[in-house]
């Protein structure tokens, strides 16, 4: 593609918007899936008679697959063509969704989620590469502003749609709903996307791939096994973590040798990219980890239906929808060092309410807090990433976006595991009820029975207990959630340290083509 073939106008024309429709469909499907499953976790616990830590693997397996496939997407797009690979990713995601609906055990569901993740991991990087080639990198800020609103339908609509489907039909439908969307997206992609002209320009780093992908997968597997094991002493925790870490360290040492490494760590010599990556990494550990627990509080402590829990989460998405387009337009004009700290302050202000939760906390207060956090979210993640990539040379942008996305997936997995460990350990500290054991012979705790009775009131008829025990159990469960949110809150505060180093002067974007004539590739939307 030549520089002249990209429109120079700042307005997005009909041809660009037609291509954007394909990307938006894929993005909504991918993002919707993450948020839909988050409200289904208690349902999976009941359906498959599994612990929270075990069921959390339905989220973790998806993330592991994302982290494994993201390094491949840039090279594969050059080798096979973006349109062809995007359609393969859509097909994988859609087939994985259909298989998830057929799962009879929690193990099967986790396995099928891996297949979904392999498709989902490629949808966003490829989608944004397609969009930048259609619109031109000089319109990235405006592009993010336009795409931001429909993409936020996932976080807003996901919990509501998931809750409604689970309450009125069954959990199977949270996956079956992807089938018609996937088929429409495949047909639309075939008709709307420009024909491929693959031009493999770089050799593929197979040695790096054999170290990085298994290394990441093993390390994150070990971290994610923590909630179930409850301690680092378990071999299934430290074993994979040790082997995974060794492979990742070996990759880091090796990656400076090849001309085209799988992950170009030399880019960290760019100060803006490094600071933005650290800021994003710390923030995601805190916010994404705790974010999975917000619906669980409504479901397990407050006894709400999945639909109500979804509706209660909606203010966060609405807040982000209001500020994301504004942040997208400001990203090209105002240094993010002057805007992101204000957005982080909004997140901190909203988050504080969740550190004070009890079994009767006002929904008006929590809804307002989620809305304020959403306002901050919309002004945080995308501006940081756009700013980081703008100062890279044109041929480094795709590699930079891959780096940031890998860090995001690792941060999300670590955050989810850490918050799950803290919550599980807190809940395990609840007082056992004398004479009551579960089917496996373990003592039933006050908090455990209280949480179970919120979702299954008939349990209290089968095993009559003093109402004060249930009340005490709910108080303990709420305190356990509050303690976990305190840890996440402290990590969000820690994000202000690297955020203070973000650029406070206007950055000049790199030109469309570098001296070698290589085309700019897009930053990848984080999800």
UniProtKB/TrEMBL annotation:
InterPro entries attached to this UniProt entry: EmrB-like, MFS, MFS_dom, MFS_trans_sf
Keyword Ubl conjugation: no
Residue ranges of every copy of the Major facilitator superfamily (MFS) profile domain listed in the record: 19-507
Entry keyword annotation includes Magnesium: no
GO cellular component: plasma membrane
SUPFAM superfamilies found in the cross-reference section: MFS general substrate transporter
Annotated localization: Cell membrane
Topology class, membrane: Multi-pass membrane protein
Cited Pfam families: MFS_1
A single GO molecular function term of this UniProt record: transmembrane transporter activity
Main subcellular location: membrane
Keywords annotated in UniProt: Cell membrane, Membrane, Transmembrane, Transmembrane helix, Transport
Matching PANTHER family: BLR6921 PROTEIN (PTHR42718:SF46), MAJOR FACILITATOR SUPERFAMILY MULTIDRUG TRANSPORTER MFSC (PTHR42718)
Protein name: MFS transporter
Species annotation: Micromonospora acroterricola
